[in-house]
Automatic annotation (TrEMBL):
Quaternary structure annotation from Swiss-Prot or TrEMBL: Component of the 30S ribosomal translation pre-initiation complex which assembles on the 30S ribosome in the order IF-2 and IF-3, IF-1 and N-formylmethionyl-tRNA(fMet); mRNA recruitment can occur at any time during PIC assembly.
Domain S1-like stretches: 1-72
Species this chain originates from: Gnetum parvifolium (Small-leaved jointfir)
GO molecular-function term, one example from the UniProt record: rRNA binding
Entry's Gene Ontology cellular component terms: cytosol
The keyword Secreted appears for this protein: no
Role played: One of the essential components for the initiation of protein synthesis. Stabilizes the binding of IF-2 and IF-3 on the 30S subunit to which N-formylmethionyl-tRNA(fMet) subsequently binds. Helps modulate mRNA selection, yielding the 30S pre-initiation complex (PIC). Upon addition of the 50S ribosomal subunit IF-1, IF-2 and IF-3 are released leaving the mature 70S translation initiation complex.
UniProt name for this protein: Translation initiation factor IF-1
Family note: Belongs to the IF-1 family.
Amino acid sequence: MEKKDMVEIEGIVTRTHPAGVFRVLLDNQETILASISGNIRQKSIRILVGDRVKVELHICDLTRGRIIHRFRKAKS
């Protein structure tokens, strides 16, 4: 897949499902299912409910995506 067919959008993880699948509430108030990208899986980055993530969506199917980045939480 070419990058021009992909859309990147940010959201918040609202629920976890088995096998590395997450329900993500996007900034535009849409809810999608997103899986973990291979790079995040290789580096063993943990994604928890409440984490802010960047999701990559294909323009043909805007209901499923791939988590490509987890943002660091602000230190308080």
